[in-house]
Specification:
The complex is a heterodimer. Chain A contains 17 helices and 53 strands. By secondary structure, chain A is mainly beta. In chain A, the strands form 13 sheets. Chain A has a 22-stranded antiparallel β-barrel. In chain A, strand 13 and strand 14 form a beta hairpin. The relative contact order of chain A is 0.11. Chain B is mainly alpha-helical. Chain B contains 22 helices and 10 strands. In chain B, strand 5 and strand 6 form a beta hairpin. Chain B is globular. Classes of the chains: A mainly beta, B mainly alpha. At the A-B interface, strand 26, strand 29, strand 35 and strand 36 of A face helix 1, helix 2, helix 3, helix 4 and helix 7 of B.
């Protein structure tokens, strides 16, 4: 009873401290271990013994062996052996074990060996669906799922990233590999709205904003719900699809302790190579000259840099210092970083209490080459530590009442350099690191002395001579073209650190009622969930000092340093802290009905009420949502299936009258393989499963301003209300007198009333009408194929009005979104899995999926730009995120000076072509653009669609092959995307950025010399200023499709005979590699096609080794 | 069975208990109050009504150097100024290069993130007009403390709306007249652009209504009322709006000069009758050379300074920086940039003091398009070898030239703009003098040094101290001097030559000309030249030249005054200075100094998205909504 008492206490105090809960859970777990050690008893007439094995030939440990009609029983030991003294006359033994089909054997000899078969057949396989489970065979919606083993194959610490390529219809885009910040964009069946496209994520039925904090070891399965039938119950939140994550639970009987440790080595998948100084100086000169500028480096300087080319640099140590070939990549980056992942979990249970408890730890190190903590006093490295703990308990009070109590918590600590640069994170640091010049000495000073003559210029003294002193060693050297604050070395090492601690705790308490007493098949469930999240940012920042260097100072005959900042030493750290916290509550009450009549009429029903309350940031008005969901399914003899799903939600985002919406969906299925006429094919194993299904329905989306920061979202809530509010009147604050003066109440008033938002009480959620047609089949017992075709019409999309002129005096921030947008989306998914077992020790499998989605914007309230535009519309009629830009004219027409190269190669060609460019005029070496509207002017009107959308790829696919060979297991996974285009016109790609960076694309640049020599030219002339080529065009807009060798894993499991001897049930060693290689079509090898931009922390290649142990 | 019953009761009550959570559904979805108000709530208390009205003052332009990065584009673009930010990748660079277009016209620059600069007019002014339309719609029923306050605020709202409209017409020309409050569902079909003169006449009518107000004051009565509207401002708006309505660029071939004269005459008389007069007394002869200089170097708002009766509306803005920093001379330690420097064209415009004659032939001032030299007016007494002696006193008030004296903390430092290091085209100079160059030499790229050989002096106080920003001259939106010349122009165009000359002469007397050299015109053509010339001088660096040169022509004509502008390159040959006029701009005379002198720059383009949107919503097409020459 003490368990019950504990449990009851927990229920009453769902927000008790996490540690208390853990303690309780662990003590319960230990007690259970003790209880489950068997004790045998019996009479002494006959004695029977034997071994129980499963269909794999492995001993079944802990199977119950019972003499029928008696209380006499025992369980099998660690070798599957049992001995039982019999008590009755005609004894019959019954062997039972959870998950196995029970077997009864009459005792005919003293030794009875039994082979138990798994109770789980294809027919019993269940999938997690919205608010419940369904037998896979009766599912009519579009649901795909993967289990724990597939998830854990990846060594990605981030669960979302681990799903890449594994589920048909799910597109994941990992945009950065930064430890702890590697958030992943997800799309289910592409995008059908200009608003938020993120799928709804539910963990054990509770909505969560992200899945990246979840330890993959805690996960039992992940289901994605794609069509209207499977998502209608989520009503207004389901239109973008739903991802259901189910965590593991204890099962009766087995006590399993699992431990796992993985060590990984990570490297950047892509990092641009830098130029050597001799090469850089020449290119910089060339780039400057191309705009008529003067050389940036003199021939004497270049001669000094050349001494590094194949040599060891200038011999004079001070010349070596001033004219270096600095490899900033080596200075800023390490060769690799470390990652450690560990997890211990225990699961098991009795009839009364089942438990799963897990503790996980992840450490992910950063790639920066930082100065040691012993020197700095703090660690500026990018790194992440994450701790996860979860306990899931199920307790059965009696035959009608059971309860579950789940608690999970995670703490994530993310550390990085303070890097007080633009953007607020380390993006500026990476930009700066990338564009540091190889000709800049440093990064640090060498202590000055008589022999090297490194001095600091103090300026003229009273007597007219120049003052100086020797430079201190180990100080930052500043590129004269940059400010001190732009120096990446200083920002990385000496600007301080930033530590973000995120802690979340989640508790779910559930009561399950078996109401068979009322009517058979009726049950009910009530659930309350509470989640808190807090985030604390500690920022220790400081100003750092440095020396500007001057190679040719006045008054000195040698290079000197100039002190920067207010002191020669770095400032003290100043500490700042900021907190964010939020909470979320969810209540659910559910009634279920599940019954078969006459063995052929199978009926289920479900009704669920739920309510959400959440506070997104401290002090915000809580978000509220109320909903009712229902499901009714009927199947006749597992042949004819029908299902109705209904969601009815209310959201406070809308005006009364527009708050509640009804979202119904209908689906039908026909299991042809269960028909009599298919009996032959079924029995012969040719077609063991063949099902057709179709669904149609309506789902909603109330996400307004998704993706915007919380402050913006708060400002744009309640769009149905007018918002006039008092705002500070800041414009004329300098004088302390407000413009209207005495107009405002206080004379020099502090506020005016501004129209912040014009209400639109007509707004409502966006509606998606979805259709899904699919076929599932199993051929030859080992080839499963699923094909889904879908169409979706999304309407009433809340978009900003584009056709409201400014003339009306309303600017975009004052306008509410309106239900104007229309998008259609369609596509298909195919997935197949093939397994082939040569024998018990040799099995192979291959599984693959391929998905295609294409969306088209039908209405975006877009302004028709005019008939003189080559493309008067830029979003309507195209996919969301379609790239636009200038097309390079590669045609041949000598009269117009077009030679097919796409470049202006001579002045004469420019004249012959006679095009006027808006903005910078083209020079030799710039692109010739197609004048699509023929007006002789290259401007916005000539822009045309290029490639596909940059929002997401149209095609995603994954392929995994693997197998087991005498204890070895292996798998290889390929993942890829297609029909995906991105514009890389970012800084770094254009040479004129920062202190000038020459990408690998510049190797094939246009230059008069290279043109004259007839060399291959693909890149425009180098320039230190923005040129007409530095814009969106079909050169910088590239095909971003790729195929990745995503994962290779090889494992070896010690034979059971060995592991049993050391008291373990399973030991597996494994090595794996992630992101091994990427094949892509980009014109540059500097960036990963999936990575957001050059300033993002690159994605990682990971090599891992680990061991897992089951006891 | 009894057990079952208990089970059932417990179960049902448990479910119902959970269900209780949902009982108060609809109520729970109502918004917790967060301070937002409906329109009705806003106009329900006197306080709120006024706080709402106050938001209509948000986009009164700051002028002077509160354009993006301190560059007064209007002065830079006109023939009187040149920006020393021309080597920065800033807005002025695009303007001089003629790179503006309908998506990138830099007047439309809006930069809330970068501080508060003037610009983004299309959006800002329409937003203000909307607020004022709402005020005028609501005021009749809104809560006020008294009926007189209601009447006062109504009149003020009218004047302020007229002010915003006037700014827009001056930039954009033809516009629709919107007096209603447009919402998100307003139907724009058939909305027309009214000819500019009609809009301007509407502006005049609005201000005339305000003049009838019993409560609107003529001037401000307390310093706290800075920027509030007055009858004086209404008069000034009437004067300018009617003048612009009659001008070629805006009149659409209507002859509205009689109308403009009538309106100007009326408001001129009203202003004078209500105490406005020219500032003609020098209070601080130690610091300033004449009243004109002292007037601009001092701070005043309408009625805020007892001895200033000229200012009709003075800006309360301090801008937070000194004139000496933004339109500075390198000798000032706090000089950040020379900023907007005077051109040779402006310098040439100042007459000779003793003869009262212009130095060139007013009808044909320059020998060629490139302004290589002037057609000297022999009657003037101008000596090209001593160009800076004996000129109009306003020259000394407005320009720092080679040899002028300056107070940098050290009294009477000499400004030296000569340059013996290089010639104007950047090549080595033949004049090998002992000393290298003057302390304020012409430079090609440095921001703190002049491009033209001159620095701006207008608005500079004599005592420049970085800490004393507040005492410096402030921007005058409207002053009586302008009204004199507006009326004079209308008088000329309606053939009231004597009246026009009288007005011009009053202005010149204040500047320091002796009545003995008063202007007399033989006919309308000469009178027109004299009035326009007088405007160029009297209103220099007050943003009038930009609009004058535009409105005097039609929209298909290039702005010839601005095509080639020049500076003065001065070499020192021993003790003698050698003066060489040189073309401004990166082309150094090959191609225009300012490509913004093209005809289309007479009007600012409508932002592309707006012309497209309006084109399709009104059904008239995007071209209808775009200004000539822009696409």
């Amino acid at each position: 009873m003490s368990d019950v008492a504990n449990f009851a206490t927990n229920l009453k105090q769902p927000i008790m401290s996490y540690h208390q809960k853990l303690l309780i859970a662990l003590s319960m777990a230990i007690m259970l271990c003790l209880v489950s050690i068997p004790a045998a008893w019996g009479a002494d007439i006959h004695k029977v013994s034997g071994t129980v094995i499963d269909d794999q030939g492995e001993p079944v440990i802990g199977a119950a062996v019972r003499e029928v009609n008696t209380k006499n029983a025992t369980v099998t030991d660690i070798d599957g052996m049992y001995t039982l003294k019999l008590t009755s006359a005609k004894p019959v033994l019954e062997f039972t074990f959870v998950g196995m089909k029970p077997i009864s054997v009459p005792v005919t000899s003293a030794t009875i060996n039994v082979t138990m078969e798994s109770a789980i057949t294809d027919l019993d396989e269940v999938v997690v669906v919205a608010y419940g489970q369904q037998k896979k065979v009766t599912v009519t919606g579009s649901v795909a799922a993967i289990g724990a083993n597939d998830i854990k194959k990846s060594s990605e610490p981030n669960l979302a990233a681990a799903l890449s390529g594994k589920l048909p219809g799910l597109t994941t885009m990992q945009q950065s590999g930064a430890p702890g910040e590697d958030d992943v964009k997800m799309f289910l069946r592409g995008a059908a709205t200009m608003n938020g496209t993120s799928p709804l994520i539910l963990v054990d039925g509770i909505p969560r904003s992200s899945m990246s904090e979840i330890d993959p070891n805690e996960v039992q399965s992940i289901s994605i719900l794609k069509d209207a039938s499977s998502t209608a119950v989520f009503g207004v939140r389901g239109a973008n699809g739903v991802i259901l994550i189910t965590t593991r639970r204890g099962e009766e009987g087995k006590v399993n302790v699992h431990g796992q440790v993985t060590y990984s080595m990570q490297k950047f998948n892509y990092w641009p190579d830098q130029r050597h100084s001799w090469e850089y100086a020449r290119m910089a000169n060339e780039a400057s000259r191309s705009n008529g500028g003067a050389d940036l480096y003199t021939p004497e300087e270049i001669a000094l840099y050349d001494m590094w080319n194949g040599g060891n640099g200038p011999t004079d140590p001070s010349l070596r210092y001033w004219y270096p070939d600095t490899n900033w990549g080596d200075i800023y980056l390490k060769d690799h970083s470390d990652m450690v992942q560990a997890n211990v979990n225990i699961s098991g249970g009795t009839k009364k209490l089942r438990y799963f408890a897990s503790a996980g730890y992840v450490y992910q190190g950063g790639m920066y080459n930082t100065e040691p903590k012993s020197f700095l006093g703090y660690d500026p490295q990018s790194k992440m530590n994450r701790y996860n703990i979860r306990t899931n308990l199920d307790y059965t009070f009696n035959n009608w009442l059971s309860a579950s109590f789940d608690v999970s918590s995670s703490i994530k600590k993310t550390n990085q350099a303070a890097a007080n640069m633009s953007g607020g994170d380390t993006a500026g640091l990476r930009w700066s690191a990338l564009t540091s010049k190889p000709t800049v000495p440093g990064p640090l000073t060498i202590e000055g002395n008589e022999s090297n003559g490194f001095i600091v210029n103090e300026g003229p003294r009273e007597d007219g001579t120049m003052g100086w002193h020797y430079v201190k060693g180990g100080k930052l050297v500043q590129d004269p073209e940059l400010t001190l604050a732009q120096m990446a070395y200083g920002q990385l090492n000496r600007s301080g650190y930033k530590l973000l601690v995120e802690a979340s705790a989640n508790a779910i308490a559930t009561l399950n009622f078996n109401l068979d007493g009322i009517t058979k098949g009726l049950s009910a469930r009530a659930l309350v969930s509470f989640e808190t999240y807090s985030q604390e940012l500690t920022m220790g920042s400081r100003q750092f000092s440095g020396y500007l260097y001057n190679l040719h100072p006045g008054g000195f005959d040698k290079p000197v340093f100039l002190m920067q900042g207010d002191s020669e030493d770095d400032d003290q750290l100043s500490l700042a802290r900021a907190d964010v916290s939020r909470w979320f509550m969810n209540f659910q009450a559910q009634v279920n009905y599940n019954r078969s009549f006459n063995d052929v009429h199978n009926v289920t029903g479900m009704v669920l009420f739920q309510r959400d309350d959440k506070e997104n940031i401290l002090g915000s008005i809580p978000y509220r949502m109320i909903g009712v969901a229902g499901r009714f399914t009927y199947n006749y003899d597992s042949r004819y299936l029908a299902e109705v799903n209904i969601g009815y939600n209310g959201s406070e985002q809308f005006a009364p009258g527009h708050r509640f919406g009804l979202f119904p969906a209908f689906s039908l299925g026909w299991v042809i393989s269960n028909e009599k006429f298919m009996q032959g094919l079924h029995d012969s194993g040719t077609i063991t499963n063949l099902k057709l299904r179709a669904s149609v329905g309506k789902v909603g989306n109330d996400e307004l301003y998704a993706g915007a920061d919380e402050a913006t979202r708060q400002k744009h809530r309640f769009l149905y209300l007018d918002n006039n509010s008092v705002v500070p009147y800041y414009y004329h604050a300098e004088e302390g007198v407000m413009i209207p003066g005495s107009l405002t109440s206080s004379g020099n008033g502090i506020g005016v009333i501004k129209e912040q938002l014009i209400g639109n009480d007509d707004i409502h959620w966006e509606t998606a009408w979805k259709q899904n047609y699919a076929i599932d089949m199993t051929l030859f017992r080992n080839l499963d194929i699923t094909f889904d075709y879908f169409r979706e019409n999304r309407s009433g999309i809340l978009i900003s009005r584009n056709t409201i002129p400014l003339l009306g005096g309303l600017n975009s921030t004052q306008l509410p979104r309106s239900n104007f947008g229309k998008v259609k989306n369609s596509g298909f998914e195919v997935s197949a899995r093939y397994t082939y077992a040569v024998n018990k020790d040799m099995q192979f499998f291959a599984s693959g999926n391929f998905a295609y989605n294409k969306n088209t914007v039908i209405d975006a309230d877009e302004v028709y730009r005019g008939d003189d535009y080559a493309y008067p519309l830029r979003s309507e009629g195209f996919s969301i995120g379609q790239n636009f830009g200038y097309l390079i004219d590669r045609s041949v027409n000598p009269e117009l000076g077009l030679d097919g190269t796409g470049f202006y190669n001579t002045e004469e060609q420019i004249k012959l072509r006679g095009l006027e460019y808006v903005g910078a005029q083209p020079k030799c070496g710039d692109f010739v653009y197609q004048d699509l509207n023929g007006d002789g002017i290259i401007n916005e009107k000539d822009q045309a669609p290029i490639g596909y959308s940059s929002l997401l790829p149209r095609i995603t696919y994954g392929l995994t092959i693997g197998g087991d060979l005498y204890g070895f297991d292996f798998s290889v996974m390929l993942q890829g995307v297609g029909k995906y285009t991105r514009y890389f016109g970012s800084p770094v790609m254009f040479e004129n950025y920062g202190t000038y960076f020459f990408s690998d694309m510049c190797d094939n640049r246009w230059s008069p010399e290279r043109y004259a020599a007839g060399e291959e030219i693909t890149h425009p002339r180098l320039s230190l200023q923005e040129t007409s080529s530095h814009t969106a065009n079909d050169y910088y807009t590239m095909d971003a499709s790729y195929i990745r060798l995503k994962n290779i894993t090889v494992g070896y499991t010690l034979p059971k005979s060995v592991t049993r001897k050391i008291g373990m049930s399973g030991v597996r060693f494994y090595i794996s590699a992630d992101n091994v290689h990427t094949w892509n079509n980009l014109r540059t090898k500097m960036i990963d096609p999936e990575q957001n931009d050059f300033s993002s922390y690159p994605l990682m290649k990971t090599y891992s080794a680990g061991v897992s142990i089951d006891i | 069975m009894k057990k079952h019953l208990i089970n059932i009761i417990i179960s049902i009550s448990a479910i119902c208990g959970s269900g209780m959570v949902f009982t108060s559904c609809e109520d729970d979805l109502n918004v917790t109050p967060d301070g937002r108000m409906t329109d009705e709530a806003v106009f329900s208390t006197p306080e709120n009504t006024k706080d709402y009205f106050a938001s209509a003052f948000a986009h009164i332009p700051f002028k002077i150097f509160k354009y993006y990065f301190f560059d007064n584009f209007l002065i830079d673009m006109s023939d009187e100024g040149w920006s020393t930010a021309d080597y920065q990748p800033l807005i002025i660079n695009d303007i001089y290069a003629g790179n503006c277009n309908t998506t990138k016209h830099r007047f439309e620059w809006d930069d809330t993130g970068q501080g508060k600069w003037d610009g983004g007019y299309w959006q800002r002014y329409w937003a203000m007009i909307r607020v004022l339309n709402n005020c005028l719609k609501r005021f009749p029923t809104a809560a006020f403390e008294s009926e007189s306050e209601r009447e006062l605020c109504t009149a003020e709202a009218r004047v302020l709306r007229a002010f915003y409209y006037l700014q827009m017409v001056k930039f954009y020309g033809d516009l629709p007249i919107i007096t209603d409050v447009y919402g998100i569902n307003t139907d724009y079909a058939g909305l027309e652009r009214k000819p500019a003169y009609e809009v301007l006449q509407h502006i005049v009518e609005e201000c005339e209504m305000a003049l009838d107000s019993p409560n609107l004051p003529w001037t401000l009565t307390s310093i706290q009322m800075k920027n509030r509207m007055t009858k004086g401002i209404a008069c000034a708006i009437i004067s300018q709006a009617s003048l612009f309505a009659a001008s070629p660029l805006f009149c659409h071939d209507q002859n509205l000069w009689q109308y403009a004269y009538d309106k100007n005459k009326k408001v001129f008389d009203l202003l004078v009758a209500n105490g406005y007069e020219l500032y003609d007394h020098l209070n601080d002869p130690k610091s300033y050379q004449n009243a004109y200089q002292e007037y601009f170097a001092s701070r005043s708002y309408s009625g805020s300074k007892a001895d200033d009766k000229e200012t009709i509306w003075g800006s309360p803005m301090n801008h937070g920086v000194n004139h000496s920093a933004i339109n500075g001379v390198p000798l000032f330690t706090n000089s950040h940039q020379a900023g907007c420097v005077p051109t040779q064209e402006l310098v040439d415009a100042f007459d000779m003091l003793t003869t009262g004659e212009p130095i060139y032939d007013l009808a044909n001032p320059y020998v060629d398009e490139k302004h290589s030299d002037i057609n000297i007016n022999p009657k003037s007494g101008y000596d090209p070898a001593n160009p800076y002696t004996g000129r109009d006193p306003r020259f000394y008030a407005c320009i720092y030239y080679n040899g002028s004296k300056i107070n940098t903390g050290v009294l009477n430092k000499t400004v030296e703009t000569w340059n013996n290091e290089m010639s104007w085209n950047g090549e080595a100079c033949n004049y090998k003098a002992s000393s290298a160059s003057g302390n304020c030499k012409v430079d090609q790229t440095a921001q703190r040094y002049t491009r033209t050989g001159y620095y701006n002096r207008k608005y500079h106080t004599f005592k420049v101290q970085p800490g004393q920003v507040k005492d410096e001259g402030n921007w005058k939106y409207y002053r009586l001097g302008e009204i004199y010349l507006n009326l004079a122009e209308c008088a000329v165009e309606t053939n009231r030559i004597d009246e026009a000359m009288n007005l011009v002469n009053v202005i010149r007397h204040r500047a320091g000309f002796d009545p003995s050299v008063d202007k007399v015109a033989a006919g309308q053509v000469e009178a027109r030249l004299i009035v326009r010339h007088e405007r160029q001088v009297e209103l220099a660096f007050e943003e009038h030249r930009y609009f004058d040169c535009r409105r005097w022509g039609v929209v298909t004509e290039d702005i010839k005054e601005e095509k080639y502008n020049t500076g003065m390159w001065i070499h020192k040959d021993g003790t003698k200075y050698v003066y060489v006029r040189f073309p401004l701009g990166k082309g150094m005379g090959n191609g225009p100094s300012k490509y913004s002198s093209e005809a289309k720059y007479r009007l600012v383009p409508i932002p592309l998205k707006e012309s497209n949107t309006l084109g399709s919503l009104t059904g008239f097409g995007a071209d209808y909504w775009q200004n000539p020459g822009w696409e």
